[in-house]
Amino acid sequence: MRFRITKNNEGSVYSMIVSGEMDDDAGWDVLQIAQTMLNMPHCTELIIDLRSAMMDGDFSLFNTDTLVSVFEEGLLRKDCALVIRCGDDHEIRLCSDQLLLEPPDQFTNVGINEAKFYGRVMKWLEQEARFMIN
C-alpha cells in the first residue's frame, strides 16, 4: 500500500490518495494517519481517495460504524468534514456542521448574594406564569 498526501493552496483541504493492495492492517494505518490529519488545527476537510486501491474481498474496515468511532471526537471538536471516495464512485461523507460557539457578552460576574436574589425572582416569575396559563 502506498499513499500520497496533498493539500490545497489555503492549507485547509487535505487529500490522501491511496494506491496498491490494501488489507486490514494497512486500512488501520490509513485511519490512524487520517485521524491525526483531521485533528490538525487548519484542516477543515479531509478526503481519503480509495479508488485506485485494491482491497481484499473480505475487507470491510471503511464502514460507517468504524468511521464514526474513529473520527467522532475530531468531528465534535471543530467544524470539519471527512470524505471517503470508494472504487465504484460511491462516497461516504461525515460532517460536523458545527459553527464554533462564541462566548456570550451578556453575562457579567456577580456576587453569590445577588445571584441568589435573582434566582428567587426567576422562580417567582415562573410560578406566576403557570398561574396565568391555568
Structure description:
This protein is an alpha/beta fold and 134 residues long. It is built from three helices and five strands. It has helices spanning 24-38, 64-77, 112-133; strands at 2-7, 13-22, 45-55, 81-85, 91-95. The chain has a five-stranded mixed sheet, with helices on one face. Strand 2 (13-22), helix 1 and strand 3 (45-55) form a beta-alpha-beta unit. The longest helix is centred in the C-terminal third of the chain and has 22 residues, at 112-133. The radius of gyration is 24 Å and the shape is elongated. It starts with a strand and ends with a helix. The relative contact order is 0.13.
- Proportion of residues in extended strands: 25-35%
Q: Number of DSSP helices? A: 3
Strand arrangement within the widest β-sheet reads 1-2-3-4-5
**Integer average pLDDT:** 81
Query: What structural class should be given to the helix and strand makeup?
Result: alpha/beta
What profile does the largest beta sheet have? Answer: 5 strands, mixed
Count of extended strands: 5
Which radius of gyration do the C-alpha atoms yield?
Answer: 24 Å
Distance between the termini: 70 Å
What share of residues is helical? 25-40%
Uncertain spans, ≥5 residues at pLDDT below 50? none
Overall form: elongated
Q: Give me the strand/helix succession.
A: EEHEHEEH
Question: What is the structure about, briefly put?
Answer:
The chain is an alpha/beta fold and 134 residues long. The protein has helices at residues 24-38, 64-77, 112-133, and strands at 2-7, 13-22, 45-55, 81-85, 91-95.
